[in-house]
Amino acid sequence: MVAIILDYFGDWKTRRLTCPACGWTGTFEEGLTELYDSLQDCQCPGEHGSASAPMLAVLPYPTLEEWQAHAAQLSPGERTYIGQIENGRERFNRMKLRFASQLPDLTEPVLDLAWDQEGEEVVIRLGERKIWREPVRYEALWRYEQVLALLQAKYGSRLRDLAPTPAAEYHLYGDKVAYPAAVQRFRSRLRRAWEASGHRPPGS
Ligand SMILES: [Zn+2]
């Protein structure tokens, strides 16, 4: 069976769901619910022996745009929450790195940079020196990739690494188990580009 997809701004709190296998009926919140990043789902809480209980419904979380479109029906708590997301996004857009030309000129022949975090800010470092800082985003592999491209545009083949520090890992990876390996792939590619441009790994 296919689970019903519910509308967050609809009647999902009162709508009755029925299990086609055991006949259980109840609301979404009376079922076995589980929380994920972008949705919540509901399994039948009835008795199903060794078979797995059917998935009755899925409740996707609204996007920021959907929240904004339903602003009138939000509770004060939801409005505060949305305001915080909007402020965070606005602040990020105002302070983020946009152009390679915003980055400082560096004279070092090899650049092993770090993707560090201080408080709520990502800090790109060369040793102790801060090259760039901007508001941190959560599960921000996309941002790592964008900043890496800007760093490469500015520093060319002298850029050899952009290594996340332990302080930055929580926000960079979040709950995404595939992200550490993805970052590793970016770093390996960077390293290969550095070697291909005529540089040699140390010791060879
Ligand atoms: Zn059931």
Radius of gyration in whole Å, from Cα?
24 Å
Beta-sheet strand percentage?
15-25%
Name every ligand kind in the structure: zinc ion
Number of strands: 10
Q: Return residue spans where pLDDT drops below 50 for at least 5 consecutive residues.
A: none
Helix content: 25-40%
Report the average pLDDT across residues.
Answer: 90
Q: Enumerate how many helices there are, as a single number.
A: 5
Distance between the termini: 60 Å
Strand neighbour order, sheet with most strands: 1-6-5-4
Q: Describe the global form.
A: elongated
Largest sheet: 4 strands, mixed
User: What is the number of independent domains?
Assistant: 3
Label the structural class: alpha+beta
How are helices and strands ordered from N to C? Answer: EEEEEEHHEEEHEHH
Key phrases:
single chain; 10 strands; elongated; four-stranded mixed beta sheet; 204 residues; alpha+beta; binds zinc ion; 5 helices; 3 domains
Report on this model:
There is one protein chain. The chain is of the alpha+beta class and 204 residues long. It has 3 domains: 58 residues, no CATH class; 31 residues, no CATH class; 101 residues, no CATH class. 33% of the residues lie in helices and 25% in strands. The protein has 5 helices and 10 strands, in the order E-E-E-E-E-E-H-H-E-E-E-H-E-H-H. The strands form 3 sheets. A 4-stranded mixed beta sheet has the order 1-6-5-4, with no helix packed on it. Strands 9-8-7-10 form a 4-stranded mixed beta sheet. Strand 7 and strand 8 form a beta hairpin. The chain is elongated, with a radius of gyration of 24 Å. Zinc ion (ZN) binds next to loops. Zinc ion binds next to loops.
